[in-house]
Amino acid sequence: MSPFRKKKSEKSFPVKVCTLDAELEFNLQWRATGRDLFELVCRTIGLRETWYFGLQYEDSKGFISWLKLDKKVQDQSIQKDPQSTVSFMFFAKFYPEEVAEELVQEVTKHYFFLQVKQAILSMDVYCPPEASVLLASYAVQAKFGDFDLDTYKPGMLANEDLLPQRVIDQYQMTLDMWEERIRVWYSDHRGMSRDEAEMEYLKIAQDLDMYGVNYFPITNKKETELWLGVTPLGLNIYEKENKLQPKTTFTWAEIRHISFDDKKFIIKPVDKNSPNFVFFSQKVRMNKLILDLCMGNHDLFMRRRKPDSMEL
Amino acid sequence: VLVNVARSKRATRGTYSPSAQEFCNPRVELDHVLKPPPEERLI
């Protein structure tokens, strides 16, 4: 091997990976694949239920992408500036069908809890007021442990981000009044560990209509604007104003083919009497992402129903 | 030029067949039917 080639193969580049509660820094070999980096992250945080997660980044064209595991990191149009550190976000890409049955490791539950809580507080996932207060009380239990009358002072929760802004805006209530409501529930959770409180949170959150749905803006043949939702169970079509109840649902078993050609996407049902559903997306890139999420969700769907295939 | 055209065509197309996947990989294999539900499959 020539000295030049040897030098090149030993070259490395800095990478930053942010999880929802930590920042990790690595030096990656120039030839490292997505899987090399992903496994490094999972090992570092002690996560073995890896199949739900992925590394997200903004590519050189500003599109949010998931890092492909089989390709070299350097070949995936990561940012062009060679001086700066490449950053990735560690996120759940797929959701379990039933958290209490599927999630085993405490660390897995914790990352789902953090991600779902963020989605609810940022109002990406709609949560009604009553459920928001109950969820907040579990989040407080997870963070502070048991309620203690001696150390608790009203206002202690004032700096915490606990409720979606929409809920606060909906009622004529002061922050103290909200805190009192949350405190009443909080004092009820005495004896619950962080892990248990986070699981209670997830068990309530997973019943919210928008939980675990990846929404994409699409238009149908009549140029009506709609949403496509990719879920663990199949594909949903929503009207523009209603992201809660799908107007059409295709379970995986009902779909013969899904395919796209440029911006046109076709869902072909197994039932030959039902018409194909044709829609258009804004970008080819979006169609690739939709297909990728379909394949990943369907793969997990099948693995759940095939015993002994999801061992740690 | 021809090679380029072929490549770009592939890059803008994709297809997946969920029902065929399930047909090819039957979910329940016979020797698993008699087993109890895999409650501890993850441990």
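qc> The mean pLDDT of chain A is 92.
qc> done
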